[in-house]
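User: What would this chain look like folded?
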Amino acid sequence: MPVSVPTPVPAHAPAHGQPPDSPAAAALPASDLRSGPQALAAAAPASFSSARLRLERPRAAHAEAVRESVNASLAGLRFVHWAQQAFALDDARRFCEADAERVAAGECLIYFAFERASGRFVGNLDLHSFDHAVPSCQIGYVGDTRLAGRGLMREAALALIDLGFGLGLQRIEARCDLRNERSIHFAQTLGLQYEGLMRGAARDPQGQLCDEVLLARLRGDARPA
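Assistant: Here's the prediction, encoded as structure tokens.
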């Protein structure tokens, strides 16, 4: 479902609607979140699991799985800036290494989702564009289109949102191209509410000015089933 990416139990009670078996992470007080991205990245787990999935931080060893998934899904990724042409294995390796570097630098949290039963790559998800004064961020998600309809990307995205709120975030947004109806619907299935239209807010992968829909979920909002 394209857009445009288990450690200690939290020391605080789960957010409203958050299930007891949501991804564990070291809870951060708001003051630490506002101190900068490194604190958030350090508190997030390297990997965690949901009912059917395992989510792992990117590394070079994931390159072949990413290459195969992107190339098979290319026709459905018209709104994804980095997926406008097929990946060679070296391209995929550089992509994974760059993602790992961004996580290490505290720019964002990125996870690759794999089906636990088969080991198959499901997609990549991230929390990015942090505003540590709130604290808030945006969520991104790009899934293998061959697995659409099984609810795997939704499960992965809900788990990542649980993790973000478990780390102390107060607001998680999605910003979707107005034409990307699938992405907007997907965000709504995660409990993100429509907040408005931002006109001429971004450039699409073809360089054209486009309108974006803003959706968001707050920490206190009910978690969808």
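Strands lie at 47-49, 53-56, 109-115, 121-131, 136-143, 171-177, 193-203, 209-218. If you want, I can go into more detail on any region.
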